[in-house]
Amino acid sequence: MPEYNFSQAKGxxxxxxxxxxxxxxxxxxxxxxxxxxxxxxxxxxxxxxPCPGDGCINHEVPLRVKWLCYIFDYKANKIxxxxxxxxxxxxxxxxxxxxxxxxxxxxxxxxxxxxAENAGTIDVKYTVIPARANSEISPKILSELEEKIPIDxxxxxxVKKATKESKDDFD
Length: 171
Description:
23% of the residues lie in helices and 27% in strands. By secondary structure, the protein is an alpha+beta fold. The chain is globular, with a radius of gyration of 18 Å.
């Protein structure tokens, strides 16, 4: 039988484990490989709901794609999970292919500032600005990152929960 110590349980503790874009500057460091999550934004409830695929009860609502990964949020001074929209992933991809900023390993070797205009609205506009110099991530942050649940497992759990909720609506 496997051993498990429940006092060392790790996971998402509260909503503040998720990063929320603020108006203006949002300085972060990407720490982990992103994992894709498809969801639906329910306007009436003002929330995103993961799409479980077959059997989804929200397919009348347009499907969106987000990429989740761990970041270091400098404002909160802690590791958080971010939901990147496609537009930000494309901007980071363009930075990554620029010879002056090229990288392939994570954590990223430099910080980025994501400037949000009209944050929290459907009309939000983002600009991604890379730092001018590479810098090291502290061993403390890397140690904390190792203790986190892998992002793929979080995404899988979110989809499973949405699947269960969809089935419960028909029971």
